[in-house]
Design goal:
The chain is mainly α. It is built from one helix and no strands. The longest helix has 35 residues, at 6-40. It is rod-shaped. The termini are far apart. The mean pLDDT is 91.
Length: 41
């Protein structure tokens, strides 16, 4: 693997964080939905 320059590294990290943010939001949404279903019972 070639060495990334700083700009490429930042872009890659940003992309990874955005993906992680989306994943986190999906997980949070599922947790909230479960909590609502549990509270309704």
């Amino acid at each position: 693997m070639r060495k990334l320059n700083f700009k490429e590294l930042v872009a890659e990290n940003k992309e990874q964080l955005l993906k992680d943010k989306e994943a986190m939001e999906k997980i949070e949404k599922r947790i909230e939905e479960k909590a609502i279903k549990t509270a309704v019972k």
